[in-house]
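Archive record
______________

***
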Amino acid sequence: MRITTFTIVAAGALALGGCANQYGGLGGGGILGGILGGNDGYGDYNQSGSNEFERAAYNACGKEASRYGRVAIDRVQQTSREIVQVVGRIDTRDSSRDQFYCSFRNDGRIVDFQLR
């Protein structure tokens, strides 16, 4: 009886851990989401056509935005050789500041981050 209960609880924790990955990389969601086939971070944005520079911007800006709440990235666009801009939404209680704009430079730094 105890082994069956433990197995059910462990399976449920793994299933829910994969879902947590979609909401800003909470706890073990990143690890479990990767094992269970979840996406790699912040919403449904598809990175399959992105270059390394855009993926680095996606990860850095998503991590910065996750400090404010759950994140969904809408757009990642390289605007020059040095800058990639990331635009997304943050699920917060303040609906007047639920969008973010982030500029990521090719040296690996966020040079502008704004909530709007």
